[in-house]
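User: I'm preparing a small set of examples for a lab meeting where we compare how different chains pack in three dimensions. I only have the primary sequence for this one, and I'd like the structure in token form so I can line it up with the others. Please keep the answer compact; I'll paste it straight into my notes.
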Amino acid sequence: MDLSERKRKILKAIIENYIETAEPVGSKLLAAEAKGSVSSATIRNEMSELEEMGYIEKPHTSAGRVPSPLGYRLYVDELMNRCRTTAREIEQMRSALESKIQELDDTMEEASAILSELTGQPTVSLSSRHNRRQVKRLELIPIAESDYALVAVTVPPAVNNKVVHLSQALEPEEIDAFCRAANLVLAKEGGSLRLEELGQSVLSGSPLYQLIAQAAEFVWQIEQPSDSCDMVVKGVSRLLGNPEYYDAQKAQPLLELLGDKEKVFGLARDYKPQMLNIRIGPENGQGPMEDASFVFTSYDLGEDVSGIIGVIGPTRMDYSKIASRLLLLSRTLGGLMPIRFPLEQTGPDKKDQ
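Assistant: Understood. Below is the structure token output for the 353-residue chain.
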């Protein structure tokens, strides 16, 4: 439904005042903001019509008006001012996203420390990041005269950005043409590999050519596969508190194993996801783990981050206590690492110690 320019301005003013104050907006306020260019009576009439059209609503306890969902939709589609993103804001966003990853690392380190304290045994947390992304969409956002933010949306869902510097500014038509052409290419199978072909029909050295070259390099870097594995071990000294390991010579091989990320990852092979996994003695293979047990569960934190957290100790460990502590930790973390106990593990309950 078409609105007059005056109705659009009044609706915009109502919405922006309401966003700022969370209070219903009246005609007197709008008239004051208009500084006499529109009378309060005229504004009241326009507001009444906007209300009849469904763009604003009148709360029962106030003479003012508030936006309706239809009003908000029109506002975001047509009325609100476009916010320009600065290079500094983009960098702040990138740093914030990186800090989230760092928070995850801190969470798993803290969780491992807590589990070791609760169980009195060494704990390990193994995490894997699988960074295999495909760029599905590119957007270009002007941030300065000849500087642009190149934003890439990937599958699995993630957003990457890069500031590109060109020799001169692009025309709006060139920006639109680049985005349309690039996204058509990316929509096809293996499209990112053919992104550079866009430059074949563009004058070499031109700003648009520079953009295409930087975009192709940016997409290539994002799509390079990379995996990383991290290990956190806490409470290693607690192993020596077990009578089985009073003898330092007997404890030494297991202590060395706990410092070998590759070997510890090997212990978790063929695990059952979201189940309590209990590997006892020889089930862990030959070597120092033949006399030790590993009780652990898996977790999946999204964002391509998954792993396991568990307890390593002597085969004499109190499995009921260890399992209950592991489950308690999982629940305390708000379901971060949900555990199901295998159905075959039945028997009388053991009093928690």
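A couple of notes for your slides: The chain has three domains: 5-79, 104-130+229-332, 134-222. Residues 96-101, 334-353 have pLDDT under 50 and may be disordered.

User: Perfect, thanks.
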